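New to this. Please check both lines:
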Amino acid sequence: MSRFFETNPYGFRIIKTARAVKAINQAVKNGFFPLLKQVQQSDKIARKYAVLQHKITREIREIGDFRDGNYRHPDFELIIDWTYYYPHNFPSPYAAYLVPPDIEIGEKVWIEDLIEDLVGGVWNQGDVYRLESAEAIWDGKNFQIQFDPEADFMNMIG
């Protein structure tokens, strides 16, 4: 089974991510090294939606699955046709992995909130999902994320 949906499956030390100046500076005061990185949005990651409106009640319904029964129901009107968007919103254009002072070169860790935008899976309806967490190895300067798109990639059909 892929590690895509698992949370720290091996019990490694967890590396936290700080996404705001205050949180980064508090971690520094607590002895962590802030490994700063720019947050760069991937144009590959996207979700879809369409918005329908009930013809009598005027209530709207957002759908994300082409098979939704209301999509072609006569009581609903298509207000916004299928549209793809980047589904994540981060508070800052940079973030920091909080590196503990006693980390050792070669140590395997679990990063629970990846800064990098890596594609972790796709749905055959067009949605492309961001990898949120992953195993990594500390090389003394950076975390080498242990994600193999061939072995760990989720291809969801349905």
The longest helix spans residues 21-29. Residues 47-84 form one domain. Confidence is low (pLDDT under 50) at residues 1-5.
